[in-house]
Specification:
Elements (H helix, E strand, L loop, with lengths): L2 E5 L4 H12 L3 E6 L3 H4 L14 E4 L5 H7 L5 E4 L6 H4 L3 H21 L4 E7 L8 E2 L5 E2 L6 H5 L14 E2 L13 H20 L2 E7 L1 E3 L12 H10 L5 E2 L6 E2 L1 E3 H13 L5 E5 L5 E2 H11 L8 E2 L10 E2 L4 H7 L7 H12 L8 H10 L5
Parallel strand pairs: 1-2, 1-4, 2-3, 4-5, 5-9, 9-14, 10-13, 11-16, 12-17
Antiparallel strand pairs: 6-7, 6-8, 12-15
């Protein structure tokens, strides 16, 4: 069995990956800075972190911490990242420092301490708008919606003649379209790891996560996944806030399935490839707001459709997971409603500081919400 380092391993996805890798017989070391936005101002290790995992409290941007964490490990799962499309559009230097410079520092340490396998977490955000068909069923790579279109409330993707496009599953073959600082960061992380892996003979793969949800998600972080944001609102007796018309479609994948994808990628020898990690299904944002309220027993709190839009947001993107299934053996197991019920069980009794309105006001003050 291998010795695995998980950067960001005390977080949402990392802690589940640690559990699964330990269960499979691997040894696990975690490097995590216990950032306040995720772990609270006390910055203490979370209770859910597996006691069998060795925790090193340190930052991936610190060369000494990265070097120390890499000692005697065979594999690296690089999850450490600042996460949030909206926040990335104004906290620019911090996002670039954590996500891009932090990855570069880790890679410099890896060059000195070679490992057998490197897997890096990328994101569906790099696709920008997902693939579409036009009226003739021709595959289309849609561009960004214009500010003029959005101000007019024409939310759907359109072709050059103004005709609506139909979203279809997005495969790894789609070229990136980087519409936020966060998307740029994730693409840089992905490319840096694959490039340095190839140059130095380190077997490397990148996983493009779609919308991950489940227990242990940071509920007080207003820039995290949409289901956690909705949950924070509902727990405080407030309606979920939905941008645009709520009909934008996303792919929600349970964290247990994502952890499984991480394990499969680490144990695979497929080199230099990128893989989608999603459910392969799409749901509208408005519908998931209703579904979550229902399982939390707050069905009276209907999603509030704001009719506003945020800079960097996309309309539709959901995963084609055929390649991940064929080459990694990845097959999502957690059905969406069952996953929501598990999330509701986790939420029961939790006290959450709802920062959503404050975060939205901050974006609006900077001209990033209209």
């Amino acid at each position: 069995m291998a010795r695995v380092l998980i950067t960001g391993g005390a977080g949402f996805i990392g802690s589940h990956a640690a559990d699964l890798l330990l269960e499979a017989g691997h040894q696990v070391r975690v490097l995590d800075n216990l950032t306040a936005q995720v772990h609270g101002t006390a910055r203490q290790p979370p209770d859910y972190l597996n006691s069998e995992a060795q925790l090193i409290v340190g930052d991936v941007t610190d060369p000494a911490a990265a070097d120390r964490a890499l000692g005697d490990v065979d594999m690296v799962l690089h999850l450490a990242s600042a996460v949030g499309v909206g926040q990335s559009m104004y906290d620019i230097a911090s996002y670039v420092q954590t996500n891009e410079v932090g990855t570069a520092i880790l890679l410099e340490a890896l060059v000195k301490r070679r490992v057998d396998r490197l897997v890096v977490a990328s994101s569906m955000s790099i696709y920008g708008e997902g693939l579409c068909h036009d009226a003739s069923m021709t595959l289309v790579f849609p561009g960004e919606r214009t500010a003029r279109q959005l101000r007019a409330g024409r939310w759907e993707l359109e072709d050059a003649d103004g005709e609506p496009l139909t979203p279809v599953p997005t495969s790894e073959a789609k070229q990136p379209s980087l519409s936020s600082v966060y998307a740029l960061n994730k693409y840089a992380q992905e490319r840096l790891c694959l490039m340095i892996g190839k140059a130095y003979g380190i077997s490397t793969a990148a996983l493009r996560f779609f919308n991950v949800y489940g227990p242990r998600q940071a509920l007080s972080n207003p820039y995290t996944g949409v289901l956690a944001i909705f949950a924070a609102r509902l727990l405080n007796g407030r309606t979920p806030m939905v941008f645009e018309d709520g009909q934008q479609r996303r792919d929600f994948v349970h964290v247990h399935d994502v952890a499984q994808a991480c394990r499969l990628a680490l144990e695979s020898r497929i080199d230099g490839e990128v893989f989608n990690v999603g459910s392969g299904q799409s749901r509208s944002i408005e519908s998931v707001g209703h579904d979550l309220a229902q399982v939390m027993g707050r069905s009276e709190l209907k999603p509030q459709i704001t009719g506003k839009f945020r800079a960097g947001d996309i309309r539709h993107c959901f995963a084609d997971i055929e390649k991940s299934h064929r080459l990694l053996g990845f097959s999502p197991k957690v059905e969406f409603n069952r996953g929501l019920e598990e999330l509701a069980d986790y939420l029961a009794g939790q006290i959450v500081d709802d920062q959503v309105e404050k975060a939205t006001e901050e974006l609006a003050r900077r001209g990033l919400v209209a």
